[in-house]
Automatic annotation (TrEMBL):
Organism ancestry: unclassified sequences, metagenomes, ecological metagenomes
Protein name: Peptidase MA-like domain-containing protein
Amino acid sequence: VKYFPIVFSITLSFLNATGAWMMSQRSHGELKWNTIATEHFDIHYHTGIRDIAVKGASMAEQIRPVLMQQMGLDTLRRLDIAFTTEDEILNGFAMPGNYTVIWVDQNDAGLWTGNEKWLRTVLAHELQHLVFFNTVKGPWWLPEPMNSLVAGVPGWVVEGLAEYYTEKWRPFRFDISHKGHVIRNTVHRIQDPHNDGFSKSLYLADRFGDSTITKILNHRNKAGFLYFESSFKKYTGIKLKQFNEDWRRHMNT
């Protein structure tokens, strides 16, 4: 038991370094990679998708200042973005290590994006995660994943804010499934943080305002940590548990 924290930290560190392999369990040593360096990003791409990488680089530079303003950040370190088409995975992910991996060329498969192109949707979403990670980071001497464990930010906040700040509420994201839960009175049992996270973020912003969200995430206690539940109570006046119950009742009214 006494070695659990060490083993846990090492395990998460390995997971943080697995990259795209953790999605497909495949590696592609045959690919030749190149990098485009912009003012604030290093864009990594393999042969055959340079045009997409150039578009993504332009989008990233345009999206960056908006996301920083939303989160109340004045500075942001250089970020890495990797684009790939291998294995045709309809997804992307971002890590606290300040990098994101995104599968591109998925317009025909990404039906839930509506009339918006896949690249713009997923790139903005994943970059918001990176800006979020930099907003909630702890003291320099407390690296990830220990900082996340201390901060205790719920999963619905992480995913919900990425959707609230970069996407639109639409049939497949997640209006249809959400209405199904309302009809069955099971909104409090939603498992996917993307689903209830988007809904809760909309409710949080409507009830307390965007500025309150920024204050919650940028607050630090005397020890220099973000402790989410305390910060939430400080700026909303209610406990997180009460907020969840208020949201449930509001959705079912």
